[in-house]
Design a protein that fits this description.
Shape of chain A: globular
Number of strands of chain B: 0
Strand content of chain A: 15-25%
Largest interface: A-B, 12 and 11 residues
Structural class of chain B: mainly alpha
Shape of chain B: globular
Number of helices of chain A: 13
Largest sheet of chain A: 12 strands, mixed
Radius of gyration of chain B: 11 Å
Order of helices and strands of chain A: EEHEEHHEHHHEHEHEHEHEHEHHEEEEE
Order of helices and strands of chain B: HHHH
Oligomer: heterodimer
Largest sheet of chain B: none
Structural class of chain A: alpha/beta
Chain lengths: 393, 80
């Protein structure tokens, strides 16, 4: 597709591995899982989660600001600050954030006040704290971004759609720069009970593509990336960590929870065509660890790329962060390209004939030129990004 | 005479699936009744509420027929 080349010049992360890119990559690159017993709630049918670790809100925000910014948006701001600092830029044209659930903490607290404590009123900041576009607005205010700023909500594909939209704006010339990524904070009582009722959360851990996989493990956090017109980045001497080379979307139009292989195939093919590639060196899979996703995704990968492309799911390390998942995985994929290390699938015990792909289970050192990052959401909304290494530009 | 377990299971499935109870037999499979995995989750939810029991994930995923549900309920109720 003609247009501007789109560089990544910075990124930031808040995750179960800690606050920052460094603890994230230190764990992801070796498959050291951040999945632990869930803290702060009575036991659910699933005991484990990938809760954000080492985050203390007061270290990042004053009390007055915290009244307005729910936890999911705090993560977004902290990740964005790191991305901005890494990029060396101070001015940005646009922001696109992905988020599925919005401010669940505020919603839970408000409903608790109403229904349990029989209060006649809720906190007046409930609406601005709950709205899932709040993170984008807070980022716009903090970084003074007055151009296109919006939020995308497509369940577990939200981040990939958000990064893809930002990619389109920079490639098309509408903007030179964009902050894009995703954010999510799922560990609130009501939302966890909703996931318990869905019966898709593993009773032990997340084992993507493994025969004994029992479901997903909920994660949370945020990742934000700085997308920049490559020529603009090069002109200011910025470090380029990789390129967004392609983006593909599709809809299954099939079922509200069950994936369809043909939908995934069409999104992956569209992304490769967009990037003018017919193969990649690595696939960072959606790889939720559910029976249905991993079998369907494996079939899709085989159909599009054959059986030899290395595949891993870093959700086994940072959990399934829903609307933030694609952004965390974008950072994992970029760092894989940057360091020449395929991050492994943790917790893998036994191959499954239904997942007949090359599942990477130990860190694999190999020069990587390109990679796919898949997101396939509930409701059949598929979004696939292609990244290339800087020296492949 | 109280409604037996099988009759209650059939009633819950009928209500959840919005289908006539007369069309549901003890030997009916979920496939025959066009019950997919998401429908199954709804039925398990209805059964938990009807009998005041908690059905583990693994048991819920193994259900393939109306009789599977009724037998599972009887075991769980007996274990209470």
């Amino acid at each position: 597709m003609p247009g501007n080349k789109v560089a990544i010049t910075g990124f930031g992360v808040v995750s179960a591995l800690g606050v920052g890119v460094e603890p994230f990559w230190n764990a992801v690159s070796v498959g050291r899982s951040g999945i632990r017993p869930i803290r702060g709630f009575e036991p659910f049918r699933f005991p484990n989660g990938a809760q954000v670790d080492g985050y203390i809100a007061s270290e990042h925000f004053d009390d007055k600001r915290l009244m307005l910014v729910d936890r999911y948006a705090q993560y977004a701001l902290v990740a964005a600050r790191e991305a901005v600092a890494m990029s060396g830029r101070t001015q940005f044209d646009s922001i696109v954030t992905g988020c599925s659930a919005g401010g669940q903490d505020a919603m839970d607290a408000g409903f608790d006040d109403l229904y349990k404590k029989a209060s006649p009123r809720v906190n007046p900041m409930m609406v601005p704290r709950v709205m899932s576009s709040g993170a984008a607005s807070h980022m716009a205010m903090e970084f003074g971004v007055t151009g296109p700023v919006y939020s995308v909500s497509t369940a577990c594909s939200s981040s990939n759609h958000a990064i893809g939209q930002a990619f389109h704006m920079v490639r098309g010339g509408m903007c030179d720069t964009a902050l894009a990524g995703g954010c999510e904070a799922v560990f609130s009582y009501g939302f966890l009970k909703a996931w318990e009722a869905m019966r898709v959360v593993s009773s032990d851990t997340c084992r993507p593509f493994s025969k004994d996989r029992r479901g997903l493990i909920l994660g949370e956090g945020a990742a934000m990336l700085v997308l920049e017109n490559l020529e603009v980045a090069q002109a200011r001497g910025a470090t380029v960590y990789g390129e967004v080379a392609g983006f593909g979307m599709s809809s299954d139009a099939h079922h509200i929870t069950q994936p369809l292989t043909t939908g995934a195939v069409r999104a992956m093919r569209a992304a490769l065509v967009d990037a003018s590639l017919d193969r990649v060196d690595y696939v960072n899979a959606h790889g939720t660890g559910t029976a249905a996703n991993d079998a369907s995704e494996s079939a899709a990968i085989r159909e599009v790329l054959g059986g030899v492309v290395p595949v891993s799911s870093t959700k086994s390390v940072h959990g399934h962060a829903l609307g933030a998942a694609g952004a965390l995985e974008a950072v994992a994929t970029l760092l894989a390209l940057h360091h020449g290390v395929i991050p492994p699938t943790a917790n893998f015990t036994e191959a499954d004939l239904e997942c007949d792909v090359d599942v990477v289970t130990q860190p694999r050192v190999v020069k990587l030129g390109s990679a796919l990052s898949n997101s396939f959401a509930f409701g059949g909304l598929n979004a696939v990004l292609v990244f290339t290494a800087p020296d492949a530009l | 005479m109280p409604e037996d377990v099988m009759s209650r299971v059939i009633r819950v499935i009928a209500e959840t699936q919005r289908i006539p109870a007369e069309g549901i037999q003890p030997e009916s499979t979920f496939e025959e009744l066009k019950i997919d995995s998401l429908d199954g989750i709804n039925i398990v939810f209805g059964i938990e509420n009807e009998f005041g029991i908690s059905i583990p994930d693994d048991a819920a995923k193994s259900l393939r027929s109306v009789r599977d549900v009724a037998e599972g309920v009887e075991k769980l109720v007996a274990g209470q």
